[in-house]
Every structure is written in C-alpha cells, then in structure tokens.
Amino acid sequence: MSILESAKRRYSCKHFDTSKKISAEDIFALEEIVRLSPSSLNIQPWHLFVAENMEGKEKIASSTQGFYQFNQRKVLDASHVMLLCVKTDLNDAHLEKLIAKEDADGRFKSPEILQRAKEVRNWFLSQHATDKDRQSWATHQVYLALGQLLLAAADMGIDTLPIEGFDKEILSQALNLPAQNLEPVALVALGYSTADDFNKHLAKSRFEFDDVVTVL
Predict the structure, then answer these.
(1) Regions of the chain with pLDDT less than 70
(2) Which of 28, 63, 83, 112 would be a feasible disulfide site paired with 170, CB 3.0-4.6 Å?
(3) What does the alpha-carbon distance between residue 61 and residue 215 come to, in Å, rounded to a whole number?
(4) What is the pTM of this model?
(5) Of the residues 14, 57, 87, 183, which is catalytic?
(6) Active-site residue 74, yes or no?
C-alpha cells in the first residue's frame, strides 16, 4: 500500500474488536517509528507510555471519567493504548545529553563542528525563553510524532483513534508524571475495528485540493 493510499484509508476508529490483538512485532515497529520521528533541532522532547494489558489500560481509562466518559470504552476495548508526553525539563542538561548522543553516533566530524552545533541549538532555544513558550514549542514537536504514528499504523493495517478528550491532571497523578518531568499530550488507542464501526463506513471528508494548496 502506498503512503497516499494509507492516508486515504486512515480514519478514527470508534469501535475496537476486543478479540484481536496487535502483534508484539508491530507494536515494537510503531514504538520505533515514534522514537525516530523528526523534531526541530532534533530535540526529541517526547516520552511514550504503552498500555498492552487491561491493568495498563485501566490506569489510562481512569482519566476518562465524567465529561470524558465517552472515551472510556474505546480505551478499554483497544488492543493497545499509547500516551505521548512532552518533557518539561528541556534545559541545559537535556541539550548536553542530546549533543553527547549525536557525537557518539558520529554526527560531528570535528570538535569545532560540535561546538558550533551547541551554539546554534542554544541560540534557537533562547528564542523560546519563557517556560510557557518553550513548552508550547516542544508540544508541537510531539504532534509531529503523533502524525507519524497515525500514518504508520494505517500503513500497517492497524486502526487508531487519537484522543485529546481525557483529564490530564488525573492521568498525571495516575502515572506519577510530574515526578518524571512529563506532561501528557495525547492518547492513541490502537487495534482493529469491528465490522459495524459506523465511522469506517462514512465517506472521508476534507476540503478540496485548491482550498488547501497554493502552488507558487
């Protein structure tokens, strides 16, 4: 299947078949796809939690109470649920760790190039000087990983549902995220749809090409 065909096929699954499980190999591939996602400055500000059994899914489902109850069954019925978080400590230590990893991977051919990389990274990060601005910028990078995950899953024949409708405070406490310098960004329920999933049979609806694309 081509990437374009996968994009046309992808939709938000509303009913997951509880009898079908995603293979460990496919889940590992999707985890790797998140890990390999692009990010500005290669900052990689994400952390991924994966619930692969009912105990894990119930922890996540605890955040789909009250107003968000409409998402509870989707979380519990999915084969797996992924939580994408953003790091809240994108500080000098994070940057040093990043530079050291790139150096170990052979990305710098000389000490001068390494030093220049540090200077450029520091300059760009300084453009997001306030904590609020830096967290907003970092969260945008996490959404790049989310988009890549959704398209990759569709290409593998796996159905998904991205979820922002959950109580972030409840989930933060359930997984002790503040102590790990993490904030929840989005959930993704993954699995295989039931035959009667109404959303699967609805026409895909997007604005026309000329409404969203301008060729210069």
Answers:
(1) 1
(2) 63
(3) 44
(4) 0.95
(5) 14
(6) yes
